[in-house]
């Protein structure tokens, strides 16, 4: 057998070969070949000095050549990383937080997530002190009875009265972008992160919600307000995207939420809980449904995601370790935290009350084996919070995502992230 001799001048150079090894495997992968002859040809091309191919490198070559796999579904094992190809199957946006989501075919993704997501929020006025209490599905399951949809430049909201399903009332129409010049400022707080400013929409909007909830309600618009991201939820600074609105009004909001352009500043969020986006997987949803009667599958909308991927080629709960998703080989999301779950999973969206039977015990079923985040050890995990990474294209801070677009899991964590949003 013909041997090939190489000559290293120092021991450190020999050791360095171990570190360049994976770069050559990556190059080899791009060439879509794993033959020794092709590898050897490209390996030698990278060096101009004769060197000795040390025994550890020979062992590494055999091991990694055998274990590197390229399959038709795009799964590649390389340097202990699994890159899997999947598809975006659903997109949701929630202009008014806690109401039913709007299912989209495409969405503009910017630093604050999907355009117009959770820019409005409902608060209940406590009596007699007038304290504002946040309204979410877990504490106010009646929110599930309100359907919203886009209608031109407006949000159209309909109330589904479970006691009078034949009722055909006129929807409430709310402008997506509001001129805040005539609105009263209001102080609100969500999960310990208060927006720099927020505005009460006043009549007739708040009157409409008050009549249906049966208690005083404030509809709050975040406008040019910004909420700080707390804890270690933020991605590394080099990956952070930021935008900053102008001093007020609809023009500055339009610039921020539609085009994503603006001056750089500290990263911020709207009335989203802790991050701009929530990503979930259908593979994990199938596992949840397998815990329920066959005729009562768990619907994805109860998990209130923004982006759903099919998880093809992935086991259930593989997303626990996802660190980065790449869309259409170009746009990246950085997944920084787990979404821990509450009793909102048990709500019946037809009655606006806790569901009866098996669908009313989904949270309990997940508690058995999905309490996997040591930072929130009493709550089960489903889904991952995400931030758009810095964009390098001409569009700057936003990109278009469509149902059916290709999604690749391009980075994974060695272990699960730990929840650390203070007080939540």
UniProtKB/TrEMBL annotation:
MF (Gene Ontology): catalytic activity; molybdenum ion binding; pyridoxal phosphate binding
Pinpoint the MOSC domain residues. Answer: 252-410
Q: Which PROSITE patterns match?
A: MOSC
Q: What residue ranges are annotated as transmembrane? A: none
Instruction: Output the superkingdom of the source species.
Output: Eukaryota
- What name has this protein been given in UniProt? Podospora anserina S mat+ genomic DNA chromosome 7, supercontig 3
> Species lineage, top-down?
Eukaryota, Fungi, Dikarya, Ascomycota, Pezizomycotina
């Amino acid at each position: 057998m013909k041997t090939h001799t190489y000559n290293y001048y120092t021991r450190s150079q020999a050791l360095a070969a171990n570190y360049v090894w994976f770069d050559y495997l990556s190059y080899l992968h791009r060439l879509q070949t794993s033959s020794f002859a092709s590898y050897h040809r490209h390996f030698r091309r990278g060096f101009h000095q004769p060197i000795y191919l040390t025994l550890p490198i020979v062992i590494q070559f055999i091991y990694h050549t055998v274990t590197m796999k390229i399959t038709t579904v795009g799964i590649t094992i390389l340097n202990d990383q699994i890159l899997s190809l999947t598809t975006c199957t659903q997109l949701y946006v929630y202009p008014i937080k806690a109401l039913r989501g709007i299912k989209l075919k495409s969405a503009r993704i910017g630093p604050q997530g999907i355009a117009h997501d959770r820019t409005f929020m409902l608060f209940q006025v406590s009596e007699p002190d007038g304290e504002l209490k946040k309204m979410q599905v877990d504490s106010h399951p009646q929110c599930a009875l309100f359907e919203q949809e886009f209608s031109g430049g407006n949000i159209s909201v309909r109330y589904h009265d479970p006691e009078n399903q034949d009722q055909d009332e006129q929807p409430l129409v709310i402008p997506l972008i509001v001129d805040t010049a005539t609105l009263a400022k209001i102080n609100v707080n969500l999960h310990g992160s208060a927006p720099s400013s927020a505005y009460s929409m006043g009549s007739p909007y708040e009157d409409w919600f008050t009549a249906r909830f049966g208690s005083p309600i404030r509809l709050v618009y975040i406008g040019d307000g910004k909420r700080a991201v707390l804890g270690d939820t933020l991605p590394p600074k080099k990956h952070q995207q930021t935008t900053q609105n102008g001093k007020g009004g609809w023009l500055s909001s339009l610039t921020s939420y539609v085009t994503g352009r603006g001056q750089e500043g500290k990263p911020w969020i709207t009335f989203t809980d802790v991050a701009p986006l929530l990503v979930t997987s259908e593979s994990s949803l199938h596992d949840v449904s397998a815990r329920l009667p066959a005729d009562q599958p768990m619907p994805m909308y109860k998990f209130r995601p923004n982006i759903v991927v099919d998880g093809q080629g992935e086991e259930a709960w593989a997303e626990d370790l996802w660190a980065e998703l790449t869309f259409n080989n170009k746009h990246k999301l950085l997944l920084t935290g787990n979404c821990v779950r509450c009793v909102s999973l048990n709500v019946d969206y037809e009655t606006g009350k806790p569901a009866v039977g098996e669908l009313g015990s989904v949270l309990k079923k997940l508690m058995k084996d999905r309490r996997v985040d040591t930072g929130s050890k009493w709550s089960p995990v489903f889904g991952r919070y995400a931030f758009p990474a810095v964009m390098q294209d001409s569009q700057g801070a936003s990109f278009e995502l469509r149902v059916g677009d290709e999604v690749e899991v391009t980075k994974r964590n060695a272990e699960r992230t730990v929840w650390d949003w203070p007080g939540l």
